[in-house]
Design brief:
The chain has about 475 residues and is α/β, with parallel strands linked by helices. The protein has 3 domains: about 10-205, Hypothetical protein af1432, CATH 1.10.3210.10; about 245-345, CBS-domain; about 350-480, no CATH class. It is built from 21 helices and 8 strands. The strands form 2 sheets. A 4-stranded mixed sheet has the order 1-8-7-6. Strands 2-3-4-5 form a 4-stranded mixed sheet, with no helix packed on it. A hairpin with a 2-residue loop joins strand 3 (about 275-280) and strand 4 (about 285-290).
């Protein structure tokens, strides 16, 4: 599970520690042997991808590659398959970094990309609440290969202890979901399967009671309650219905499977497009990319649509962003036929930028409401540096000179508002942050996105990870 990595040995549970140490001692001698060129390249690629966005483990604040290494080491204790070890390193790369499955395939080949795809959740924010999405992802995992299931077991083992030790409340949910996942992972390596079951039971015992979660307890929300005005039908209309997938999709050229590559290339070059759909017996079945077309019929280069790559025309922009986090292209289905395509470049379109700026503005308004709630009577001023306060006072004076009424709090910079809330534990909890460092990173990223939106800068290159996180979070709030 992204964002919750942690070494099992960190949990203060004797049984778990002894068992993992046994596996570690067995793996140390063979670790260098298993680190083939493929796995070595995967470790470098994944580490750099997560470092570029300063991705860290949620509770310990360690660099995220610590979790990836732990999962890869566990996999290496039960197999010498370099593709499985590589997939272990890469299993969160598509979900959490700007890299797509197509990037993984280009760098490491189709077999590794297929494993990573099997390990990547396919549910979208618009599919429903957490319970619904988890069931979709569980069914996806159930259909995975034995190799992918083995890697998934290693991932569960490494996440389980860290979550239980640091977040007992969420651990009850996680362990319940882990139990459901283990039911579909029985074909995975029997040693890791046994280890996962034993560790789960140990963690359950450490919590003092069974981790039984009622079906509705977490189904409608996965975080703190939103403030008034940031939930319900009105908020959802603003967030999800103003702009949809059809508003930013580009028309998709379509060709018969018998069309030659040269014919397709000529048409794509004329339209300055990279991708086209392919019809087999009159039905659109997949797509081709201009960059890979060579000789013969275009059907030789067809790529079939994956289940998580196609959205309906009225899908939210959050769903579109979610697909583009995993794939180079999001395809749009109109009246049962794929007729449109969206790439990351389309996220720079004016209407998407308007949507994103609206989301950032809503978040800033939420920060102001929280400050007023937790710092009444302007007590927040004690948390602001003198120079920053002076800057806000100067801005307020200028606005008042123009007969624009405003309160001093509204004249603070975005980052200042965030820093104020970091000083209050309940405010931190309301925002859903486990640590101050995590909150600081998000505030910094949001301010970067806000500035790039304001100054018409490229947001895809610089802010993609934050765009994905923010749209997913706001979709969760909108569905409450």
């Amino acid at each position: 599970m992204p964002g919750h990595g942690g070494a099992v040995s960190h949990i203060d549970l004797a049984t778990a520690t002894v068992r993992k140490n046994r596996y570690n001692s067995a793996s140390e001698a063979s670790w260098k042997t298993f680190m083939t060129d493929l796995a070595e390249r995967a470790s470098i690629y994944a580490t750099r991808a997560h470092q570029r966005i300063d991705h860290r483990r949620k509770y310990s604040n360690q660099p995220y590659h610590v979790h990836l290494q732990a999962v890869a080491r566990l996999v290496a204790t039960v197999t010498d398959d370099p593709e499985m070890v590589a997939a272990a390193w890469l299993h969160d790369t598509v979900e959490d970094t700007p890299a797509t499955l197509e990037d993984i395939e280009e760098a490491f080949g189709a077999p590794v990309a297929e494993l990573v795809e099997e390990l990547t959740d396919i549910s979208k924010p618009g599919d429903g609440n957490r319970a619904v999405r988890k069931e979709i992802d569980r069914m996806h995992t159930a259909q995975a290969s034995v190799r992918a299931k083995t890697v998934k077991l290693a991932d569960l083992i490494d996440n389980c202890g860290d979550i239980t030790r640091h977040d007992p409340r969420f651990a009850r949910l996680y362990l319940a979901e882990m139990g459901q996942l283990l039911d579909v992972l029985k074909e995975g390596d029997p040693r890791l399967l046994q280890q996962a079951h034993e560790l789960r039971e140990t963690c359950l015992a450490s919590l003092g009671r069974e981790a039984k979660v009622a079906s509705g307890e977490w189904s409608s929300r996965s975080g703190p309650d939103p403030l008034p005005g940031f939930a319900g039908p009105h908020f959802r209309r603003m967030f999800a219905e103003i702009f949809t997938a059809r508003d930013i999709a580009e028309p998709l050229l379509s060709f018969d499977a018998t069309n030659t590559c040269s014919e397709v290339c000529k048409a794509l070059d004329y339209r300055q497009q990279e991708v086209a759909s392919v019809r087999i017996h009159g039905s659109v079945e997949g797509y081709v990319r201009r960059s890979v077309l060579a000789d013969g019929d275009c059907a030789r280069h067809i790529r079939h649509f994956t289940v998580d790559q196609v959205v309906s025309g009225d899908s939210t922009l959050a769903d579109v962003v979610h697909v583009l986090t995993r794939h180079d292209y999001c395809f749009v289905n109109m009246l049962g036929v794929v007729t449109g395509v969206i790439s990351r470049d389309d996220i720079n379109k004016p209407m998407v930028r308007m949507w994103l700026f609206g989301l950032v503005t809503m978040i800033e308004m939420m920060l102001v409401q929280l400050i007023r709630k937790y710092f009444p009577d302007d007590r927040w001023q004690q948390e602001v540096a003198e120079k920053r306060l002076e800057k806000a006072l100067a801005f307020q004076a200028e606005r008042q000179r123009r007969n624009q009424h405003c309160q001093l709090l509204e004249c603070l910079q975005f980052s200042d508002k965030g820093q104020i809330l970091l000083a209050h534990p309940q405010a931190m909890e309301s925002l859903g942050f486990a640590t101050k460092n995590a909150a600081k990173r998000v505030i910094k990223d949001l301010e970067s996105l806000r500035n790039n939106l304001s100054h018409a800068q490229d947001i895809v290159t610089h802010d993609w990870a934050q765009i994905a996180r923010m749209s997913r979070r706001m979709e969760e709030i909108a569905r409450r």
